[in-house]
Amino acid sequence: MDIESFVKEKIKWLGHASFRIEGSKSTVYIDPWKLKKPVPADVVCITHSHYDHLSEEDVERIRKPSTVIVGPPDCQAGFGKAFKPIAPGESLTIGEVKVEAMPAYNTDKDFHPKKNKWVGYIVTVDGVRVYHTGDADVIPEMADANADVALVPVGGTYTMTVKQAAEATAKINPKVAVPMHCGDIVGTLEDRNSFKSAAKCSVVILDITT
C-alpha cells in the first residue's frame, strides 16, 4: 500500500488534533477528544495536558484492560498502571507499534513552553512512520523526524499558521501531510485548503470521521 492510500484508508481524523490510526494488528489514538463513535484502543498517545488533548473521559470510553496510555508525566490523570510516562527523545515499543516522543513547543508564544517537555509523536504502524507534531511551532527538531506522514496544525493562535505549517513541511519533508488543529476552537476548515496550496509536499485533506 502506498503512503497516500495508507493515509486515506488507515488514518481517521476525529476533529481538532484527534486521530485514530487503524493498523493491521493495533488501533492507536492520538489526543482523543469529543469522540462520537469510540473504537477500543490498543495504544493511546497524549501530547500534553491541555483539556482539548488530554480528555480522561474520552480515554476511558476507548480503554480496554490491556490499553497502554502514553504521555508526558503531567498527563497521568487517573490512568494508574496503564500509563507510561515519556519525554522528548524517548521511545517505547508496544506490541507491533513503536512510539517515539518528539519535542513540541512554541517559539513565538507562551502557550506550550519548551520547559514543559510536552511532545509530539512518531508512531510507526505497519511500517509507516506517522508524525503528529503536537501543539508545536516550526522547530529545528522537525528535520530529524524522517516521517512518511506529517499531521500538522494549521489553525494558528496556539500553534502554527497555515504559512508556518507549510514551512514545517519543508523541514519535515514527509511523503504526505495532513492538516489538523482547525475547525474547532481555532482556525477554520478552509485553512486546510490554504495549507494544501502552500505546502511543500503532497497533502491529503481528511474529512472528520463521524
TrEMBL record:
<dbReference type="InterPro" id="IPR050114">
    <property type="entry name" value="UPF0173_UPF0282_UlaG_hydrolase"/>
</dbReference>
<protein>
    <submittedName>
        <fullName>MBL fold metallo-hydrolase</fullName>
    </submittedName>
</protein>
<dbReference type="InterPro" id="IPR001279">
    <property type="entry name" value="Metallo-B-lactamas"/>
</dbReference>
<dbReference type="Pfam" id="PF13483">
    <property type="entry name" value="Lactamase_B_3"/>
</dbReference>
<feature type="domain" description="Metallo-beta-lactamase">
    <location>
        <begin position="15"/>
        <end position="181"/>
    </location>
</feature>
<dbReference type="InterPro" id="IPR036866">
    <property type="entry name" value="RibonucZ/Hydroxyglut_hydro"/>
</dbReference>
